[in-house]
Input
Amino acid sequence: MKNLLELDARLSERLRVAEKPGLRRIVAALLAHSGDSWFWLLGLALVWGFGSPYWRARALAFGVGIAVTAAIVMTIKFTVRRRRPEGEWGSIYRRTDPHSFPSGHAARAAMLSVMGFGLCPLWLGMVLLAWALGVMLARVAMGVHYLSDVVAGGLLGSVIGYLFLLLTGAWV
Output
């Protein structure tokens, strides 16, 4: 297990751009923050408040999905208690949630992507998938997660999204 964790840390370090000024760092920082739950909940509240019944239903479904995903991720994080990688960027994440496994951002992004494919037009599912992969890589690039954190989060979020669609029969 120790060898796997060391390999994970080495691969994660290779992807890191947090301390390297430039366009890649700017893009990674924007993508890393774009998966924040408050950002999504605010956007979904606006869609629910001003959208058509079609989009209101989807906003509600995505909001419920975010809440369920957060509860599952936090339960796992406080059970595993893996420390985040050392670093300066992302101090708010390090203070409010010092645990890195699994990545909540990756889980949320993957869940939204899977639900997007099941509930929305195909083009939106494709956009959400590309965005989710970007968020996952950005979380590692900015040094707030190890590669295994985002892989596990992505798999977990995909399963949650799929189960949500199965359990609701994609009712929206």
